[in-house]
Amino acid sequence: RTTMKSLRFISAEAFVSNAEFARKSLGAVAHDLFPLLFKASYLLEQGEVIHDLVENWPLFDFNMGKLLGATLDYQEDLSHRTCSVCLESCLTGLRDYVLNQSSPYMKKLKVVDLTGIKDVEVQFCKCKKTMGRWARTQLLSKLCSELLVYLQQAQCNPGTFEISINVLIDLFVTERNYELVVQALLKKCSCPLKICCVAFRSDNLTLQKFFYIIKLTDPSLLRKLEIVHNVHLEMEHLEILFNSIHFPLLMSLTLPARTFNVQRFTGTDEQMLSNIGEKMGEMTQLTELSMSFSILTGRIQKLLSPLKTPLKMLDVSNCSLNHADMAYLANSFHANHLEALDLSGHDIPELYPSTFFKLLSHCSSVLRSLTLEDCNIQDTHVNMLILGLSPCQKLQEFKFIGNPLSSTALKHLFTFLCELPMLKNVEFPVPKDCYPIGITYPIDDANLCRYDHQKYERVAEELNFILLQANREDVKASTPLFGSYDAAVQETNNELGAYLIKSFKETLEKFTTSFNKMS
């Protein structure tokens, strides 16, 4: 598929394709052509031209999402190209914007917005080298620190110290880049480039470090907070966090696995849970909540009923919900607004079939994403599932890996899925008849890949043929056995892997020590 380009865009491409000529001629370029030239340079990966465009940026704002998004001159959205060459040129250009005293343009730049960059699995840039969220956090922090050192040592124009640019960014902090980010945030007041954290993700951090850095980010500006994987945050720590810090603009909250465990609850824990619910109720912008792999049996109402704003996204996968929880969700004011719902890890047909379908009917007019992985959906439930999904005409994504469905049932389901007009992505299970007879569900990791691969390929081809016959080539169907692509996990998997090995080794050493003492 080729995207039409205007004559202006074609001319811009021709201009920037000769980097040496373009860089020499920038001084004669009209201000309003800079955005056009920037997008053309980004498309052609002309790093040097990108650097010089940013270094001499003549406008008040620099918004990556808007600059790379669909424009009249070129409809294609390039914001998902996290090309390392382009992004590094952008950020170093920004540093040199501050230092460049001979630029022919007046320094008007006040806001740089880097939040529109989208990290995706498949990259189309020629260099094939990406700069993910973690690396962008690292580089910007490094450039801010270097800039300060340079300004303190060099003889700079007094006007340089008057430059103040807010750089909006989604920060991603782990143990490995923690010190660098802390230094940049601590010196924010004296640095011309001021990091403004709009979204914050932390992984592989001690609680002490997490609490310290979250206060430095200016939580009053935070819209999204993700605390994941190796941050050992439990309910009492969450209560301390909400009592000590206000998040007035927070729209999205992700909590790590095992934040809540009602099996260990005492009377004071019940009160603590109520307090957390009330604190979340004060976050009037909160519309997205993810708290997977916690044990929340019978407590969903206590946690969610204080919320003043209906949730648009809810992930309660593997949270051991009971009938009362599902009944609350189905009847709550959240139900009519849910655009994304994840109920994975619950035996829906056995525990609460009618209540689930009531919830589905309430959110059907707005639901865009539904995830029902490992929910014990069997062949006998497919007709009922089709009935429940029929009103969900806005559904774009349906994930149901890990369910014991036969290839025949999958074909029946796919024939129906073709009728959902907005559907774009389907993640389906390996058919049950591809596994050895007697396999039990949920399938453990050791047996997950022990299926007839040739038979699976044949079935997958048949399912894709069903889509093809219905003219639905726009639907991507896949079986990511070990979970969907996660850009953040992908980028930091070496660090997280090393951390897990270290934790395992420490646990083993403790066990050996205890065992030796017993002996």
TrEMBL record:
It comes from the Eukaryota. Keywords: Leucine-rich repeat, Repeat. The keyword Translocase does not apply. One of its GO terms (cellular component) is cytoplasm. Belongs to the PRAME family. LRRC14 subfamily. This is Leucine-rich repeat-containing protein 14B. It comes from Pteruthius melanotis. The lineage of its organism: Eukaryota, Metazoa, Chordata, Craniata, Vertebrata.
